[in-house]
Amino acid sequence: xxxxxxxxxxxxxxxxxxxxxxxxxxxxxxxxxxxxxxxxxxxxxxxxxxxxxxxxxxxxxxxxxxxxxxxxxxxxxxxxxxxxxxxxxxxxxxxxxxxxxxxxxxxxxxxxxxxxxxxxxxxxxxxxxxxxxxxxxxxxxxxxxxxxxxxxxxxxxxxxxxxxxxxxxxxxxxxxxxxxxxxxxxxxxxxxxxxxxxxxxxxxxxxxxxxxxxxxxxxxxxxxxxxxxxxxxxxxxxxxxxxxxxxxxxxxxxxxxxxxxxxxxxxxxxxxxxxxxxxxxxxxxxxxxxxxxxxxxxxxxxxxxxxxxxxxxxxxxxxxxxxxxxxxxxxxxxxxxxxxxxxxxxxxxxxxxxxxxxxxxxxxxxxxxxxxxxxxxxxxxxxxxxxxxxxxxxxxxxxxxxxxxxxxxxxxxxxxxxxxxxxxxxxxxxxxxxxxxxxxxxxxxxxxxxxxxxxxxxxxxxxxxxxxxxxxxxxxxxxxxxxxxxxx
Length: 488
What we know:
CATH architecture of the largest domain: 3-Layer(aba) Sandwich
CATH superfamily of the largest domain: Type I PLP-dependent aspartate aminotransferase-like (Major domain)
Strand order of the largest sheet: 5-12-11-10-9-6-7-8
CATH class of the largest domain: Alpha Beta
Number of helices: 15
């Protein structure tokens, strides 16, 4: 008994439940041999009195140890540390242990032309400022509310079903909540059957394009355009046809011209805040694109990019709200609303298409995270997300204005830009600057900024980058712009 008192310490201020602290202490000391195999342990009441804790807490610790295979409890005999303990280290498959490392390449044939190279995005190094592509400030995310909502769904017995396998289409609760939210904010006349929950917008784009496109099929995108979507279309073997994007959005005359000469299967468009240029597609062009989709029977992927973040006036309703013929596949994400790590997106389309997309999604990824999906639904129902959006819009507008002032006052003759009406970044041209050299030099000064080459084409070099303002406070923006000023 005295030995147990020396070996087990309890921190009443720790987040880890006391019964788990006790469980972990037992396991640790069994591993070290301080508590030997076959040792008879005191009863739960005795140990509870010794450690000055509730007896039920000690019962829970013993139950956990038994469930993990460290102890056994025999009626009328007592509690013992098991003689056959859980395997502490895996056994080798081969009798002779040869040291080796995983080869750099597989032995089987691999066509590396099928692999599209992408730059892996990691967490920035400590102490560095990052001008990202336009991400929300994760410091503002309602993390505590999300944790409470998750805890609520996880611990109530009525919700234990959410820890089992669920449907690939997403939880009914989140789809019902989103249907109501999208109807109120975007005018979409939908039901939960029109919604598929995805792991972000990128998965939605992939699923939609996979269903519609066969290898070799032509698809129209804007230029400059979103490289993440373009890489998906290339990976699927589609033939990309680019049309210019001007201050009014994607050029619809160019779209129509291509439709007359080719059997266009799909048009990918970001009508609200085009990526990368942040321009908004005019109402006239939206209506014409819808008319062309009916006439030439092609699908439209409407990317709901940064829809909730508009600073000048109320945003225009999506094209999907005007779609009477079922040509629009509407795709959005909560990543830009909350934080990039929260991978929840959605697809809105006719129910038959959603069924196909659900089947494909199940083949790729059995289901989403039901617990998080329902926790997010709880945040919608409690008004947390609506309040968060309103708060973020006010703050991001201030940050947009501050960055635009800095660019004008500190870098005026070196840059060209338009103040965006919404979104989270400023499309900035550096007409006289080598952006590759600037990006490398800035990194050495503590600033991470893209070099803009992802937007270049064989016929045009844009020498432009998106400067994300939403995730940088005033001081961080000033430090970042000062570094650029010293380098240009």
